[in-house]
Amino acid sequence: MNPQTTRHAATLEEHSGLTSLTEITSSPDPQAHYARLRAQWGEVAPVEIERKDDVVVPAWLVLGHAENCHVMRSEMDYSRNAANWRWNRENLLPAGTAIGTFAPPAPRPTSFYHDGPERERLRAPLDDALAALDERAVRDQTRYMCERVIERMGDSGSGDLVKVYSRPVGFLAMTTTLGFDLETGARLMADSAAVVSGDGEQVANAQASTAAIVMEHIGQRRKDGGQDLIGHLVGHPNFAHDGEIATSAIVPVSAAAIFLTAWITQTLHQLLADRELSARMSGGRLTLDGTLDQVLWRRSPIAQSPALRYARNDVQLGGRSIRKGDALVLAIAAANADPAVHTDDLWDEVDNRSHLSWGTGPHACPAPRLARLIARTAVDHLLRHRDVQLTVPESSLPAAASPWVRHAERLPVTWQRATDRGAFR
């Protein structure tokens, strides 16, 4: 047996010299990393999730679009419950790892961490609550939030667009939808920043703080009622106790911190740096929704999904032998850029939403419409009310250090009041 075949037959833990997820995501060209991994391993490659106390935590990185779809849809073979992860079962995970907070050995009471009937029981309230939201009210709340943030920026100035606009708008719009006031939303934003930081102890403390804030809000809604997202969750008969409501509400809070910030930032970044894309949108050849989808296809803000899967059985995937208990990371950015689902004509992708940024299957994102509404409103409002210019070359913009999201760590810009040019459509 030749060395290459032997290496490919090795168990996950026997591989060494693995590429880390953060190295891929924060590099100038993540697609070059994905291409190198594909050339070496095919559509499933061993990678490093995290390193703690010289212990490398490995996983299989699923690169192909078809392979990602298969894993997302095959709940019987690939579980979301981290109790099935060998590193939890055998006590291999070092204390204080960041991944440990996303992959607890005992699943938290939310559909995010469960499969089958228990997932269905816990997912239904979230789906029902989202369906009950008044989207016009959410749009109006988001517009108000954007106006407040833009007012704070002033008629003209300079700064980091991620810090002064993308992060607060995305996050505060979501927390307002949940029913929190601005002051509480700011506290939740600080906690979520600690979660994204990746430091294990900070992550645990921030998650505990968030849980306490959400539980207090649930108590208020039980007393006073309300038409916000948590108000709708509180009355749902599927929940056995308030802890289930809290954990179900925390998922969109975390998503706002991680995903909405990244999507808004990536879209604004591309419109400021890519003259062709900006001209296509401003000239009416591409709608704002089309632009948002172009970003998801070509510059996916979710590089790797933090919703890991764990093999329930010994299986074959993309020609790779996956052992029972192995962890799998879904490489959304690699799947969305998979040559197998693209042509050379960008127009083929206009209004095509078969990308995997929302996932697919039983654990697909429950709130793509809500996320799109917030992101669309945030980008549109800024571009209508401020002329924004990057002040540094795009090549000098480092990516945020994260194993999960891909966006510029900062966007140094100048801005000034714009003449009202109407909303993009």
Task: Write a short abstract of this structure.
With 425 residues, the protein is an alpha+beta fold. Helix content is 51%, strand content 11%. It has one domain: Cytochrome p450 (Orthogonal Bundle), CATH 1.10.630.10.
Q: How many separate helices?
A: 17
Sheet with most strands: strand arrangement: 1-2-8-5-3
The major pleated sheet works out as: 5 strands, mixed
CATH architecture: Orthogonal Bundle
Kindly state the mean pLDDT as a whole number?
89
Structural class: alpha+beta
Q: What's the helix-strand series?
A: HHHEEHEHHHHEHHHHHHHEEEEHHEE
Helicity level: 40-55%
**Any idea what the shape is?**
globular
Q: Output the CATH homologous superfamily.
A: Cytochrome P450
Radius of gyration: 21 Å
Gap between N and C termini: 59 Å
**Approximately how much beta-strand content do the residues carry?**
5-15%
Q: Please, how many domains?
A: 1
CATH class (first level) name: Mainly Alpha
Number of strands: 10
Q: In the CATH scheme, what's the topology name?
A: Cytochrome p450
